[in-house]
Structures are given as C-alpha cells and as structure tokens.
TrEMBL record, chain A:
<dbReference type="InterPro" id="IPR050968">
    <property type="entry name" value="Cytochrome_c_oxidase_bac_sub4"/>
</dbReference>
<keyword id="KW-0249">Electron transport</keyword>
<feature type="transmembrane region" description="Helical">
    <location>
        <begin position="77"/>
        <end position="101"/>
    </location>
</feature>
<keyword id="KW-0472">Membrane</keyword>
<dbReference type="InterPro" id="IPR014210">
    <property type="entry name" value="Cyt_o_ubiqinol_oxidase_su4"/>
</dbReference>
<comment type="similarity">
    <text>Belongs to the cytochrome c oxidase bacterial subunit 4 family.</text>
</comment>
<comment type="function">
    <text>Cytochrome bo(3) ubiquinol terminal oxidase is the component of the aerobic respiratory chain of E.coli that predominates when cells are grown at high aeration. Has proton pump activity across the membrane in addition to electron transfer, pumping 2 protons/electron.</text>
</comment>
<keyword id="KW-0813">Transport</keyword>
<comment type="subunit">
    <text>Heterooctamer of two A chains, two B chains, two C chains and two D chains.</text>
</comment>
UniProtKB/TrEMBL annotation, chain B:
<protein>
    <recommendedName>
        <fullName>Cytochrome bo(3) ubiquinol oxidase subunit 3</fullName>
    </recommendedName>
</protein>
<feature type="transmembrane region" description="Helical">
    <location>
        <begin position="176"/>
        <end position="199"/>
    </location>
</feature>
<keyword id="KW-0249">Electron transport</keyword>
<dbReference type="InterPro" id="IPR000298">
    <property type="entry name" value="Cyt_c_oxidase-like_su3"/>
</dbReference>
<comment type="similarity">
    <text>Belongs to the cytochrome c oxidase subunit 3 family.</text>
</comment>
<dbReference type="InterPro" id="IPR013833">
    <property type="entry name" value="Cyt_c_oxidase_su3_a-hlx"/>
</dbReference>
<dbReference type="Pfam" id="PF00510">
    <property type="entry name" value="COX3"/>
</dbReference>
<dbReference type="InterPro" id="IPR024791">
    <property type="entry name" value="Cyt_c/ubiquinol_Oxase_su3"/>
</dbReference>
<dbReference type="InterPro" id="IPR014206">
    <property type="entry name" value="Cyt_c_ubiqinol_oxidase_su3"/>
</dbReference>
Length: 111, 202
C-alpha cells in the first residue's frame, strides 16, 4: 500500500499541527489553573477549562483520528454525534439532577 | 468503474471492504466505550464533594505530575500517528521503532499513574475511604486499565509486523490500534480537565 510523497507530507503536517495545538491547549489549561486560580471566579475558570478541552477534542478528532464526512458515507460521524447526544444526557442529566438533590439536602454538619 | 473485473481484482476489492467494515465496527465499539467512560465521569462529578472531611482534591493532586503524564501521552499519540504513516510507505523497520517509542511513552505515563496511586494509598487516601476517592480511582483506574491493554496490544502488533510483515490483516489491526490509542488520548484530555484541574480549582 504505497502512497505518493505529497500525500505523505500532508499527513505528516496534519499530525504535527494537531500535536502543536494539543500541547498549546494543555499548556493554557494547566497555566490558567496554576497561575490565575486566585484571580478568576470559578465560573470563568470552568468555562476556560471546558473551552480548552472541547477545542482540543475537536483538534484530536480532525488531525489524529481523521474523521471526515466522506469516509464510510458519514456513518462514523453519525455514530459520533449519536454518542455525543447520549453522553450529554448521561453526564449533563446526572449533574443537573444531583445538583438540585444536593440543594434540597440538609447542609453538611461540621465534624 | 470498468465494466469487467477479473476475479483476483474482485477478491481484493472484497478484502478491502471487509477491512473497512472492521474499522467501522471498531469505531462503534469505541463509541460504546466512550459511553462507559461518560458514566464514570458522571459518577465522579456527582461524588466530587463527598470527601467525608478527609482528603480533598486540593490536598492530594500534584499538577506537575499530571502535566508530565499529559505531555507523555500526547507525544505517544504523535509517534503512533507517525508509525501509521511509515507503515503506509512500507517502511516496516521504522514503524516498529516508532511503536517501541510509543510503548515507552505509554509506559512512562502508566508508571507515573501507578506511582501516584501508591502515594495516595500510602497516606490513607484509599478507594474505600470516601465517595470522591472511589470515583477518582475507578475513573482514572479504568483509563489506566485501557492503557495497559493498549500496551499489550502494541507488543502483539510489533511481533506480527516482524514475523508477518505489512499484510492487509496486520495493517488493519494497526489501524484499529491507532484509533484506540488516539481515543485514550481524548479520554485523558477529559480526565485532566475535569478530575485534576477542576478538582484543584473547586
């Protein structure tokens, strides 16, 4: 299974771009928590972390896993979206329900 | 397509299609695995505050350790990608070399993780001591188990490459492996963001 040189060069570049983005985004996420934790509110901090993670996941899917619409008539992309919806329900739903459950519980007693 | 296909050509086409189906089937498996990880994440987030006045994320987690783990895993994903590239070009020796590099980087990650687990257990932060630690050990441990399986898979692939060469079957297996390894990278991104960074910030 041989491929021509320009194609190989493009794929090599793809991996390097993906790697560069991943390292940069990880550095931002860790840096924000280590250096700016005391200056930012938890909401802002959580938003930055969520954004970094989300962008990095997309970068990984595009540059490392090479998920494209054309492959497999888009069936792998369809499976990915379906999984995303299920995950949103499981993780988001649990968080939502448990958050309100905690709110309605007695405050934790000091030891 | 041409109007007539000779039978060896047809056979080749059939084989290629089978290989593509295998990759798609494995993709479906990875999606179900993502759902399993998702439920573990949900459990961890729900139990995060249940520390029973004991060890908290702030008192336990060492971010520099997590950062070194992150760099090791991201780099191993890159070398794994390079291994796939050299395989496509038919440079099998380089493929094996890059797989060895991937294996070493994965090993560094796993060693750091085990060291972290042992240091927690040493100071009494065991999985059974609080809800938060149960969630932590099961989520991060599940990722570690996946990684160990990936490393065993890597050894098998290196042996197959060395003995069988780059046949269609071996190439397909390596493709599945690279999907698996990149997928573990994505899970780790979620773990360091949610468990370590959010845990320390709360």
């Amino acid at each position: 299974m041989m491929i021509d040189q320009s194609q190989a060069k493009k794929e090599l570049l793809d991996y390097l771009i993906g790697y560069g983005f991943s390292i940069a985004l990880s550095l931002i996420a860790f840096g924000v928590v280590v250096y700016l934790k005391d200056y930012l509110s938890i909401g802002v901090l959580a938003s930055i972390l969520a954004l970094c993670a989300l962008v990095q996941i997309v970068v990984q899917f595009v540059y490392f896993l090479h998920i494209r619409k054309s492959d497999n008539d888009g069936w792998n992309l369809a499976a990915l979206f379906f999984t995303g919806i299920i995950l949103l329900m499981i993780v988001g739903g649990s968080g939502w329900v448990m958050f309100y459950l905690h709110m309605n519980m007695m405050p934790e007693l000091p030891l | 397509m041409s109007t007539t296909l000779s039978s060896p050509n047809l056979e080749l086409l059939q084989e290629q299609e089978n290989a593509d189906n295998k990759v798609f089937g494995f993709w479906i498996y990875l999606m179900t695995d993502a759902i399993i990880f998702g439920t573990f994440f949900a459990v961890f987030v729900v139990l995060l505050k249940n520390t029973t006045h004991g060890h908290t994320p702030q008192s336990l987690f060492d971010l520099s350790n997590a950062f070194i783990e992150t760099v090791a895993l991201l780099t191993s994903s890159l070398t794994c990608g390079f291994a796939m590239l050299t395989l496509k070009q038919g440079r099998i020796k380089q493929t094996i070399l890059l797989l060895i590099l991937t294996f070493i980087l994965g090993g560094i990650f796993l060693a750091l993780e085990i060291k972290e687990f042992l240091s927690f257990i040493e100071i009494g932060a065991t999985p059974q001591s609080s809800g938060f630690l149960s969630g932590f050990f099961s989520l991060v441990g599940l990722h570690g188990v996946h990684l160990s399986i990936g490393m065993i898979w890597m050894i098998v692939m290196m042996l197959q490459l060395a003995t069988k060469g780059a046949t269609l079957a071996v190439t397909t297996r390596l493709k599945l492996f690279s999907l698996f390894w990149h997928f573990l990278d994505i899970i780790w991104i979620c773990i360091f963001s949610v468990v370590y960074l959010m845990g320390v910030s709360l």
